[in-house]
Design brief:
It is a single chain. This protein has about 300 residues and is an alpha+beta fold. It contains 10 helices and 10 strands. It has helices at about 15-25, 55-70, 100-120, 135-140, 150, 195-205, 240-255, 275-280, 285-290, 290-300; strands spanning about 5-10, 30-40, 45-50, 85-95, 120-125, 175, 180-190, 215-220, 225-230, 260-265. The strands form 2 sheets. A 6-stranded mixed beta sheet has the order 2-3-1-4-6-5. It has a 4-stranded antiparallel beta sheet with strand order 8-9-7-10. A hairpin with a 4-residue loop joins strand 2 (about 30-40) and strand 3 (about 45-50). The protein starts with a strand and ends with a helix.
């Protein structure tokens, strides 16, 4: 049976009761295994990583939507992470005996179903995108939730499924198939957010920095520091060590120490050789962030 990973991003990272209900919905879905949950109150965002076959994933995801639509209201939402939906992004990654076409088919099924059932507009992205301009998540997200109503009236930005305006409280969802992506935060021992913003600007691809790197600089009030929040879209072409080396170089130029880093969700084994734990200043042991052992443990406990 084909196994697919879903890395579902929800715009909630503060209310424990809501997060418990979402996690339990996934745990109670037959043939689905929750591998990891990472929540952050400053980003006000949570990432749930889970695996299963296409049928199990569809059922689990629809249960999450049922809860999210009733419990998350973007009109009341605040957080440093960009967001455009209560269930913001739903990517699928083929794992064992799964193919990209199968993941694209599942993405289309989920997108069409949530549009019909919940009246939430959905956009297909990455390998499921129906237009080149929609492959990159940042293009869909550009302008934020505040500009969606106007943006979606223009033909190039009509949703793939659902109404031509955002759901009043749940916004829109972006759903697709992609290669493994590493979401990674590098925290600086500084309270000046311009330091993180300058470093993010220097390292990201769109500003002429490292290939496959997307980055923003944000303030993390709960920890009294600032953060370079990174998405590394191709860790084989641009390694985590290369990213850290450039961040440290730019931080030294600003006379700002790098405190530690943290991975959001999980990363493949070949992205995280054990020797990199100290050099990447990870806040946990490499094994706690590695995808494959989590999958193995899941299968052994079924």
């Amino acid at each position: 049976m084909a196994t697919i990973e879903c890395i579902l991003n929800v715009s909630e990272g503060r209310r424990t009761d809501v997060l418990i209900s979402l996690a339990n919905a996934l745990r109670n879905t037959p043939n689905l295994c929750l591998l990891d949950q990472t929540s952050d109150p400053d980003h006000n965002r949570s990432v749930f990583s889970f695996i299963g076959d296409a049928t199990a994933l569809l059922h689990g995801i629809l249960t999450v939507y049922e809860l999210a639509v009733t419990k998350i209201d973007l009109r009341q939402h605040s957080g440093v992470h960009p967001r455009i939906g209560a269930v913001d992004v739903v990517p699928f990654v083929p794992i064992s005996r799964a193919t990209v076409p199968e993941c694209v088919k599942l993405a289309r099924l989920v997108a069409s179903t949530i549009a019909k059932r919940f009246d939430i507009p959905s956009f297909l992205y990455e390998k499921a995108a129906t237009h080149p301009s929609r492959r990159d998540l940042s293009n869909i997200r550009r302008g934020g939730i505040e500009t969606l109503s106007d943006k979606m009236t223009k033909p190039p930005w009509r949703p793939d499924f659902g109404p031509l305006k955002p759901h009043p409280s749940a916004g829109i969802s972006v759903i697709g198939c992609r290669e493994p992506l590493i979401a990674w935060n590098i925290n600086l021992d500084s309270k000046d957010v311009t330091n993180a913003q300058q470093i993010a600007r220097r390292i990201r691809r769109s500003s002429g920095g490292l290939p496959h790197v997307r980055a923003i600089g944000v303030r993390i009030n709960s920890r009294q520091l600032v953060q370079v929040s990174i998405n590394l879209a191709n860790y084989r072409a641009t390694t985590m060590s290369q990213v850290m080396a450039m961040v440290e170089q730019e931080a030294a130029r600003l006379d700002v120490p790098v405190a530690y880093s943290e991975i959001i969700g999980l990363a493949p084994t070949d992205a995280l050789p054990e020797s990199t734990s100290e050099s990447l200043k990870l806040d946990k042991a490499v094994q706690e962030y590695t995808l494959e052992p989590k999958i193995l443990a899941c299968r052994q406990h079924r």
